[in-house]
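User: My collaborator sent over this chain with a note saying "see what the structure looks like." That's all I know about it. Can you take a look?
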Amino acid sequence: MNLQQLTTFVTVISEGSMTAAADKLYLTQPAVSQQIRNLEEELGVELLVRGVRQIKPSPHGEVLYEHAKKIIQHVNLAETAIKTIGAELKGDLRIGTLNSIGLHLMSPIISRILRHNPDLRLKVEYGKAQQMISEYKKGELDIVILPNVKEEYGQALEGSEEKFLLREEMWLVAPGKDANLPRELSMDEIGGYSLVYFIEEFPNFNKKLIEVAGEPAIDEAIVFESSNVGTLKRVIETGLGWGFLPSHSIKKQVRSGRLFRVHVKDFDYGMDFMFYFKKNSAQKALIDIFYQTLSQERTS
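Assistant: Without extra context I'll predict from the sequence alone. Here is the result:
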């Protein structure tokens, strides 16, 4: 049992399939399957329940999953601590991102960096994309973490460098306590269910959704709208409706059974979240460390 196998196993569980894990880890699907088989043979137990649509951990797999996450996190902590101590990071760094992605991605890493760099000051701002873009262009933010701004918002960030950070998908989720949920449906069936609607955050997604489902069907089905992903999660959990939400913000609730993912046969939507910063920035070393730390966090 090695770190690579554990990382692959954790990714398969968090992504829900071998194919999705392979995409995230930049591996082939057979390579991922072989690592899991090797791990199962070494431990002498089955770690996965292989369903038609989604892979879930077996009872043995659930135990390994919890321990493996902690092992990977401790390794990442050690690596980050060593890098940040050696770098002796100083100065100010101002970061802007969306509320829906920022809370789960940013919060865990702040203490890792600050703990070993008392002369470093970080400012993390959550807000709407257009607000983040405007502040970045005016020089009020050093980094913005957003979906590809050209594709999602029709804008360009001149004089900037960009790095890929993660792939975000929009999942249709329903209350987990409903025992009569369909495992999948098509978009022409969406109008038959009450919908909660995630407004403002991803305008291109909302445009594509309306194009596929039809504006009248969406308008008639909507019972609640909000730009706050936390509020929408709670509304769905109470059984008031279904909704499309960004996958990273709801994976924990889906794994625990509080929310249930309904697969849509004829519609899927994904976004590449990018890490933007100014070219030739005087803080290049600090920005590189911050990007490396974020990249580690998304796989832990």
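A starting point for your reply to your collaborator: The longest strand covers residues 160-175.
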